[in-house]
């Protein structure tokens, strides 16, 4: 596992020069000083962790606003844009319904009173999936969903941040333990 983490770190560090050369040749070249100050394309531990956290948080924003939201949050937090954009892909058509159900249950824990998850069959009697049925189901989730989505997004952001920190530091901690044993 340590070998895999070290390889991943090397690969991420190898991306930085490629991104920089592409940035110098693109229309964004004039913005490079601003982008550099913000660490938006640095593949180091802190910018990567902040970028993943931003992507995990903004991944629960509906539809086409995920990537623009992630770009804004990465610029604000000085996180890596590439890591943030990639992290938003944990939400997709297969994971949206389970994540929204989890957000509903999380919101129901916080809200007073008993909250029940509306059945899919009440929205789509034949059981077929459609965008209209999904929109109606999400509307039926109501206030617990509105409370649970930001809570779940914050939880996912914290987990993403901690995961990157641990992944980045694990090889160093293992080397330190081996060195201490060898003494």
Coarse morphology: globular
Distance between the termini: 24 Å
Kindly state the percentage of residues in helix: over 70%
Total domains: 1
Profile the largest sheet: none
Structural class computed from helices and strand pairing = mainly alpha
Low-pLDDT ranges:
none
List the total number of helices.
8
The average pLDDT score comes to: 83
Give Rg in angstroms.
20 Å
How many β-strands, per DSSP?
A: 0
Order of helices and strands: HHHHHHHH
Strand content: under 5%
Describe the model:
- Keywords: Membrane, Transmembrane, Transmembrane helix.
- This is DUF2062 domain-containing protein.
- The protein is an all-alpha fold and about 180 residues long.
- The protein has one domain (about 1-180).
- Helix content is about 75%, strand content about 0%.
- The chain has eight helices and no strands.
- The protein has helices at about 1-25, 30-40, 45-60, 65-75, 80-85, 95-110, 120-125, 130-180.
- α3 (about 45-60) packs antiparallel against α4.
- The mean pLDDT is about 85.
Write the layout of secondary structure elements.
Layout: H1 2-25, H2 32-38, H3 45-58, H4 66-77, H5 81-87, H6 96-110, H7 120-123, H8 131-182
Transmembrane segments: 47-64, 145-169
Keywords: Membrane, Transmembrane, Transmembrane helix
InterPro entries: DUF2062
């Amino acid at each position: 596992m340590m070998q895999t983490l070290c390889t991943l770190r090397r690969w991420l560090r190898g991306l930085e020069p490629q991104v920089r050369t592409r940035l110098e040749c693109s229309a964004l070249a004039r913005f490079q000083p601003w982008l550099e100050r913000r660490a938006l394309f640095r593949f180091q531990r802190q910018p990567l962790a902040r970028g993943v956290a931003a992507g995990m948080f903004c991944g629960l924003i509906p539809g086409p606003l995920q990537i623009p939201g992630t770009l804004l949050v990465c610029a604000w937090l000085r996180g890596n844009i590439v890591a943030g954009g990639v992290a938003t892909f944990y939400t997709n058509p297969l994971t949206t319904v389970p994540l929204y159900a989890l957000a509903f249950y999380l919101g129901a824990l916080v809200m007073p009173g008993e909250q029940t998850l509306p059945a899919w069959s009440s929205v789509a009697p034949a059981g077929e999936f459609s965008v209209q049925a999904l929109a109606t189901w999400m509307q039926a989730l109501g206030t617990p969903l509105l409370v649970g989505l930001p809570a779940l997004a914050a939880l996912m952001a914290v987990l993403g941040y901690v995961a990157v920190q641990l992944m980045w530091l694990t090889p160093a901690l293992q080397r330190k333990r081996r060195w201490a044993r060898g003494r």
